[in-house]
Design goal:
2 domains; 206 residues
């Protein structure tokens, strides 16, 4: 799936607005860049189910110089089955993970996310892949994001839901539940399986 031109335009305008607000020197600069954020919200409002005011407010809450966001995910396999969590937002399943936090390394972020979402302790052992979250047939995200997937060893803990999860289970790769496509796509899991089959497989990036 290619990124539609309207989303490319909206992202570029929003990122210019965000960066402009960060370095604004006077009220004129502030108002001009707020208007750019409003235009980006208007564009997305016309082509999606997201509301203009909600988008505008979210844009103004994005701090600092505009860069891609980083989403970390953990591939945890036991007895040939992969650990997935059921997301409270959409009721679908994905590898545990989420946005990386400022001040943490990517590995530290994925360790924390797994603990918070599943109740398990893990140790990252290999970088499986770094994906552009919007390309190669994956669903579109509003913000440009990179998805970083780690292969992790299970070190302890027990299945326990968190604030953002409804269930925690291991699934056979050939009997997967309905996936939360923005968080975990089928091609992510194919790459996980490929690394399990070939421990020397190189890290994927796109």
């Amino acid at each position: 799936m290619s990124v539609p031109q309207w989303l490319k335009w909206a992202r570029e305008i929003q990122s210019s607005s965000q960066t402009g607000l960060t370095f604004a020197h006077n009220e004129y600069d502030v108002e001009r860049n707020k208007r750019l954020a409003e235009i980006a919200a208007e564009i997305i409002d016309q082509y999606s189910t997201l509301g203009k005011q909600e988008l505008y407010n979210d844009f103004l809450n994005q701090p600092g110089y505009a860069t891609p966001k980083v989403d970390v995910r953990a591939a945890i396999v036991k007895a040939g089955k992969i650990l997935l969590v059921k997301e409270s937002q959409d009721g679908r399943w994905c590898m545990p993970g989420g946005w990386a936090d400022v001040g943490e390394t990517p590995a530290e972020s994925v360790i924390r996310e797994v603990w918070e979402e599943s109740g398990y302790r893990v140790k990252p052992t290999k970088l499986i892949g770094v994906y552009d979250a919007n390309r190669s047939g994956r669903p579109l995200n509003l913000y440009h994001a990179f998805k970083v997937i780690f292969l992790c060893d299970l070190k302890g803990g027990a299945a326990k839901t968190g604030f953002e999860t409804l269930a925690v289970e291991f699934f056979d790769f050939d009997a997967l539940p309905d996936l939360s496509q923005n968080r975990t796509h089928a091609d992510h899991l194919l790459e996980v399986r490929a690394h399990l089959d070939d421990p020397h497989r190189q890290t994927f990036f796109d």
